[in-house]
Structures are given as C-alpha cells and as structure tokens.
Design brief:
By secondary structure, this protein is an alpha/beta fold. About 35% of the residues lie in helices and about 15% in strands. It is built from 7 helices and 12 strands. The protein has a 6-stranded mixed β-sheet with strand order 7-6-8-9-10-12, sandwiched between helices. α6 links the parallel β8 and β9. The radius of gyration is 20 Å and the shape is elongated. It starts with a helix and ends in a 9-residue tail after the last strand. The mean pLDDT is about 90.
Length: about 260
C-alpha cells in the first residue's frame, strides 16, 4: 500500500490519477487483467511478480505505454525501473563471507522471476569467486507458514548452511524462528541471515534482521516519469533503469573478522 501511495502521489503531481486494477487468475492459472481497456487508461505501470506477456502485447497493439515497476518479465520489451538485483545478491554473499561464512544458501519462494534470478546469479558468482563453489539453492514459499517445511529440511541436512540469504524478509523471519525454536541455533553465531525489503518487522527487537532496503520512492518516481514521457512525448525509447539498494545491517550478521 505504501508503494501504491508513492506511485499515486507522483502521478497526481504530474496531473494524472491512478486506477488500481488487480491481477486475477484465469482458468489456466495465468495472471490476467480482465477488460483493462474499458478503463480507457493513458498508460500502465505493471507491478507484479507474475507479469503477463499477453498484457504487454495488448498494450503494444493499442499503443498504450507500459512500464514495469520493481519487476521485469523475460521476453518483454518495455521500459522498467528495478533494483540492481545482481548487486544485491553479490553484496549479500560478500557480507557473509567477510564475516566467516563458509556454507551459504539462498532461500526463495515458489514463483520464478527474472529479478530473483538476477539476485541468485550475483550471489552465486560471488560465492564461486570467493569460496570456489556455488551456494545451496532452496525453493520454498513466500508465506511464513508454507516456507517452513523446506526450511526444516535445509537446517536438518548434513550440510547445514552457516549463512542464508532470503528472497524476502518474511522468509527470513521464518528461517530465524525455525532455527531458534526447533534447532536451538544461535543467530548470528550459528547462523547468519539476510532478508530483502526491510519491512517494519525486520527492526523488531526479537529479530533485528539485516535486510536490503529497496528505493521504492525513486522507483515510483522514475516509473511515473517514464510512462508520462511516453504518453506526452510519444517517446518509445526503451529505458532500463537499475537502482542501488542499501544494506541495513542489524544483528543477524557477525562482526567482521
């Protein structure tokens, strides 16, 4: 909701109003937007983990400008504003290894995205460069409860990681709770954890989770600027903007050696 407010406020500042159109699942379990053209929109800002390529094609067919916000779908050729996800993964791995991490893992949800894959690529490349081998990769779930079964398997394995990066803070919080309550692990002494999104719960005293803060304010500003420029200037230039994220370090990382 905070992100939607940022986009809406920026649009209003430039003389436009926002219409929120939610994604729905069709009979083939594909994310779609029904009857988007009945709204007679001037442009579209798509913000979804599952961007529908059919929507992109329809917008192109009807000459409706479309910009992707925070996510980018493989195979589409429209402008986007996203975080520098490769750098996020790389920086996370480097932070773990600088603090003695030897056995790294990456835990994500069940929905594959290009942005998440870029984080995995950065994380993997840094591990291979600094440690000489790739990290473990676990696909779980983006919800707190459903992520727990795969987290348990990971922590119970013979090659239990000493450092875990998570695709979201919710997954990271689930990791921390399972590690402490069920495996008796101490954080960060036995297990270092980094999340993503820096949600309010990350700063709670019981978690103090190290997390990446994405610059959604700038992403919203740049996305609106792109789509308005396409509307007003008929500028079809392809803009690929990657914005740095900031690592907010708390108490789930060891001190540097």
């Amino acid at each position: 909701m905070e992100t939607l407010q940022l986009i809406s406020t920026e649009l209003q500042r430039m003389g436009y109003s926002a219409v929120l159109i939610p994604w729905v699942l069709d009979d083939q379990k594909h994310h779609t937007i029904p009857n988007i053209f009945q709204y007679k929109v001037d442009g579209v800002i798509a913000a979804s983990a599952q961007f529908n390529t059919a929507l992109y094609e329809e917008c192109k067919e009807f000459n409706i400008p479309i910009v992707q916000f925070a996510r980018v779908e493989k195979g589409t050729k429209c402008s986007y504003a996203i975080s520098d996800n490769y750098a996020i993964g790389q920086q996370a791995a480097e932070a773990f290894i600088e603090r003695g991490g030897k056995h790294l893992a990456y835990v994500t949800g069940e929905i594959p995205t290009l942005t998440n894959q870029e984080r995995v690529n950065g994380y993997t490349d840094a591990c291979e460069r600094l440690l000489g081998y790739a990290p473990s990769y676990v696909e779980s779930n983006y919800t707190y409860e459903k992520a727990q079964s795969e987290i348990r398997k990971l922590l119970a394995s013979n090659e239990r990681p000493d450092s875990i990066m998570c695709a979201t803070d919710i997954i990271a919080i689930s990791v921390m709770d399972i590690a402490r309550q069920e495996f008796g692990l101490s954080i960060p002494e036995d297990l270092q954890v980094i999340g993503l999104d820096n949600i309010p719960q990350a700063s709670w005293l019981s978690y103090q989770l190290t997390s990446f803060q994405q610059d959604f304010e700038r992403m919203a500003r740049e996305s609106v600027k792109m789509v308005v420029n396409q509307i007003q200037e008929q500028d079809q230039s392809l803009v690929k903007l990657m914005i740095p994220a900031k690592l907010i370090e708390r108490k789930t990382l060891k001190k540097k050696a």
